[in-house]
């Protein structure tokens, strides 16, 4: 059996090695290392794949979120509602811009922001909502957009874990996540579903004025060279990464299918086990399984993690400390919040190996060891 990894980026690379090397070689030969044809080509391919009006590439997913927030022209102290149960980047950028993060709870089945909790958290100072399509399925965007529109609030989708995910509205219309809110953001961090071989990110919007601002902010606040209209930053997608991503984008749907096949194997193995809850998928979204995350019921998670490690099976806790309990926010004078679902999930979730290269032998080995531990420890 091949050694089991949480993510097997190398195994995936070996299958597309020739095309990747050709892409890199072309950039090297072109000497267009910054914003050249490779970046333009990938930006167009991605824009088309997403069905977005505008796609603006940038240096990483965290920058994408920061630039998106900067484009909204918010003032210090304006409130931005986000889930606490997410990767830190979502809320870090809010704090970095001296905006006030307002943490709300998530849905216990989808792990995404709970629209009811969101509704309750709105105040006259609320200016934006950042829902996260956590682990690869969409938050309830129809409900979120309805609340946002009723209160004139911006929505920035954190689509870092869900690129390629499709959302279906109640009228039957299906679109890609990241193109529903006013702005969508994604990351090409190597382990993400569309991973570069280094850092990268992108911003999506259907709004022409926001697209202009985003482009300007990502480029030192200038439209015309050396004429800086606003304070911006320097956030570019590297040309070599763009060439790599352009090759990988052609395989994204096939990668999503491979992740779904692995998830189906796990789901089947763990079905009807009272001690394990398999990922629940809402009817308005498909799942691109950035992570395959179980909720344990009455199982000692650390002991399971140790047992699996002894069997050479990696497993991870995403995330061990939710945002509202991070020390970094302690100087912000934020009011105490009570997020029972977030706290409950934080103590019970465990993610199993999930990537495009898992074979049935590995999946059988992983799931049988999980079951062995669970069934012997109840
Ligand atoms: C990975 C990730 C980010 C940040 O992306 P980087 O490219 O690592 O900066 C933001 N939000 C979420 C939910 C992520 O998983």
Task: Please tell me about this protein's structure.
- The chain is of the alpha/beta class.
- The protein has 2 domains: 241 residues, 3-Layer(aba) Sandwich (Aspartate Aminotransferase, domain 2), CATH 3.40.640.10; 125 residues, Aspartate Aminotransferase, domain 1 (Alpha-Beta Complex), CATH 3.90.1150.10.
- The chain has 13 helices and 14 strands.
- The strands form 4 sheets. The chain has a 7-stranded mixed beta sheet, with helices on both faces.
- Helix 5 links the parallel strand 2 and strand 3.
- It is globular.
- The two termini are 29 Å apart.
- The structure holds pyridoxal-5'-phosphate (PLP).
- The site of pyridoxal-5'-phosphate has 15 residues, from helix 4 and helix 5.
- InterPro entries: DegT/StrS_aminotransferase, PyrdxlP-dep_Trfase, PyrdxlP-dep_Trfase_major, PyrdxlP-dep_Trfase_small.
- Belongs to the DegT/DnrJ/EryC1 family.
